[in-house]
Amino acid sequence: MSTLYAVLFYLATILLVVGTGLKIRKYAITPAPLKIPTTPAPTTRSGVFWRMAREVTVFESLFKSNKWIWLFGYMFHAALLLVLLRHFRYFTFNVWWWVELIQPFGKYAGFAMVIGLGGLWARRILVERIRYISSPSDHLMLALLIGIGASGLSMKFLSPVDIIAVKVFFLGLLRFQINELPNQINLLVHLALVATLMIIFPISKLLHGPGIFFSPTRNQVDDPREKRHLAPWAAELEK
Amino acid sequence: MAPLDDKPVLDVRGPGGHPLDIPRLACGAMDDLKSYAAHPKHQEDCGFPGELIDNWQEVAIAKIGELADKNRAFQVYLDACVKCGACTDKCHFFLGTGDPKNMPVARQDLLRSVYRRYYTFAGKHFPWLVGARDLTREVLDEWYNYYHQCSQCRRCSVFCPYGIDTAEISMAAREIMDTVGKGQKYCNEIIAKVKVTGNNLGLNPKALGATLEGLEEDIEDETGVSVRIPLDEKGADILLITPSADFFAEPHIEGLLGYAKVFHEAGVSWTLSSYASEAANFGMFIGSYENMREISLRIRKAAAIDLGVKRIVFGECGHAWRVAYSFLNTLAGPFDFLDQNYPIPQHILEFTHNELEKGTLNIDKSRNDEFRMTYHDSCNVARGSRMGDKPGGQFEIPRAVLRAVCNHYFDMDRDTIKESTVCCGGGGGLLTDELMDLRIKGSSPRMKALQQVTEDHGVTHMAAICAICKTQFSKVMPKFGYEMDSILSVHQLVSNAIILTGQETDEDTAPIEGAATAGAE
What we know:
The structure holds two protein chains of two kinds. Chain A contains twelve helices and no strands. By secondary structure, chain A is mostly helical. The longest helix of chain A has 30 residues, at 97-126. Chain A is globular. Chain A starts with a helix and ends with a helix. In chain B, helix 15 links the parallel strand 3 (311-314) and strand 4. In chain B, helix 16 (348-358) packs across helix 18 (393-405). Chains A and B meet through helix 1, helix 3, helix 5, helix 6 and helix 7 of A and helix 2, helix 3, helix 5, helix 7 and helix 9 of B.
């Protein structure tokens, strides 16, 4: 079982890093032929930096759009961030001080994460417009994330797992050794789901994460009259 | 809920009729609405196959891949959508029709589902899981119908957490369809006309010259002052590029008279060009960079070679201003031969606003006292361009000009103006009679917002700075209880209020006591 999970995590990590890397590369090398920022837009690069910062830290456009989706979406993403940061403690031999600092919040953030996801799922089922646009994969994605959250919470609050052994397993993986993983069902489910998430990341809508940074309507400077913008393939037309 | 029947709508407000009220889904409501197919000759004039080619499926699929390599927005937007639903109630065509395929995300999905099928792992191996589907004839027809129910107004892009712009997808879809010979008559016929005669209407230089002479006479009859509307004058300082509707349609012409009066009072030399007698660039509507570039280069040739002007100013035209402001430098630049002390290009409202600030215009606001005004932000000006130095100048400058020439001005509901403006319902290549049903329904959010200010503030007229908006509103306003001339050009109000140097004013138009302060807000 330990070997199986070790292989699974090596594989998932490679697919996540390589797959997402290739996608980011595609976004980066694909030119934007025209200036299309959604205006009013910042007229300087630092202005664009702040616009993007607001989008990714407080979900500004979503807030303007729909308060319920913002509330649940923000709850989920903020909680997920805390939970992820908290998990650093299982990958570093000495726990960093700021990981220690967020530990009490990160522990309970799991609940916020699951509640946020539940809210999003409820909307997907109950609001007819959102039900209409949902594919099976949209429901499964929520199920997967809720599964990860719930199985994680069960280890913290229902049937604790030998967390030292888990840490030894992952520290081992980082040093290319395979140590014994506790054979406990909620742990195995949690890890299998996380590996699944890592594997599907580069081939799913989770690409919205890197994608937003490449969105021309959000990352372009509004300066077309001052600065000529020309894509390489468009420059060819002028020859 | 907005009515879904075909009858003319007199009062669509009803109980609780907020402009942005969300309708129940009416699946298939607009399934059958098809705009006319392009004539093979016009297709070929635009560089596309005349009719649907035999291997259309193969070519269309390859074109999706080509666009994903050439246009970052297209690639990122196909991948990034999480179906959160934030955009689902943002499209005026959805609000007006209830047809779920008019929800922005659903409109994108018509193409995204095909992209997924042929270009993604999940779609290739598990199509049912991710809603991927084969490109069939039915899918192509569905594209044709619903990508011609998008006015490319970008309202959805304001509200999308990733900035996904349905206009980009709909432009790409139209380009893919054109590439396989499935073009739309309205857009492609107009593009063909520009290439032959220089304007969308096919107005030849002689007719244009005669029209302008007639307009000069009108101004002289009305004011007693000779104001010129020059055509093809070499060595003029300013080339004015304006939508050809300004030459013949109401209320557009009144706007042209306004530009002429402002130029006259500012004491600048200017000219129109018969070769580039069109501001609008329908190449954008069909997502064709090549066509958009070819049309833009006419302006460069007119300015640089034919007339040798120092500045380019654009008249009131929405999509034209987006192409001019955001794309002209890219498509037809660099404009290093023009006077770099002025914005290139400049909007006529920027020009007029400057003159008002300088105090060169003698304005009598009371001449517009018969109008209680509001202002419709045209979508492509609002969300695809700018005026002035600061972000949002495209909202402030037109309002500043209106307030400077009218005593009675009121804004509509905040959620329906500025960057949240709702489209007139006729933009993006939809201003054609066979789509009238859609145009009326799509205009209903704007019309409801207008009805609100009519009730609350007694607003009688609405001003706009887009040729499409003006034509569309003069057609649809009668369906909502307004006269067709309730839509005005902003420069029409400027024209009314200007007292030309040497103009004799009679008593009727003298300022009325107290009018200057009454009702201004």
